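Journal club side-thread
Mid-discussion, someone asked how the predicted structure for our own chain would compare to the paper's figures. Pasting it here so we can look after the session.
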Amino acid sequence: MGRFFDYAVNTGKYNMEFDEHLLNESISKSIKTPILRFYGWFPACVSLGRNQKDNIDYSFCKSEDIDVVRRITGGRALLHDNELTYSFVCPVDFLELGQSVISSYKEISKALILGMNKIGIDINFPVSKNVKSSPQYCMSLSTGADLSYNQKKIIGSAQVRKMGYILQHGSILIDVNFDLIKKLFHETANAGEITFLNEIDNSIKLEELIYALKLGFELNFNQKFVN
C-alpha cells in the first residue's frame, strides 16, 4: 500500500524541500512502498534544474511576485503557475525496469497516461524531434520522458536517483501565460508545440484531474495509495 499526500498549495521553496524530504525519508527508513503527492504553487515560481546555469532576471521576478528555487532534479527552468504538479518516490527495484533511467521514466509516466485517459484525454510519448537550439524554458524541449497530446507537450517530468531510490516529479499544464514566459526566459514558447488542459477541455475541474491521476497510479502499479 502506497502513501498519498493530497493536493495542497505551497511556496516553491516548501514544495522542493518537501519532495527532497520524502526522498530522504524513504532512504533513511528503507521504505519499500511508493509515495504519491499532488501540489500547486503560490506565488508563481521558477524552478531551476539541479545543474542549470542561473540566468534568471531576479528584479523582474520580484516585480511580478515570482519566486525562484532550485530543484534537486535535473532539466531546464520551468515556470510553475497554473499547473498541477505530481511527485512520485519509490525504490529503484519497485519498478520492473528501474535500473534504466528512460524505462523508469516511461513506467511512471504510464500512470499519467492511464489517469488522463480516465478524463477522456489521450496522451502519449512524443515523437523525437531534432532540436536546433538549446531552449532555457523546459517545456520548449520534448524528450522521450515527456508526454504529449496530439504531439504537443502537456507534461514535463524530471528525475533524480539517490542510494537506490527515485524521485520523479512533473508539471501538468492547466494553462500557459506565453507572454510571461517570453519576458522571463527571453524566448518565445511555441504554442504549436505546447498545449494545456484548458485548451483541450476547460470543463475539467482540478479535483476531477487529481482523482483520475491518482486512479491511474493505482492501476499502473496495482497499488492502493492512502493518506
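Post-session note: Residues 162 and 184 are 31 Å apart (CA to CA).
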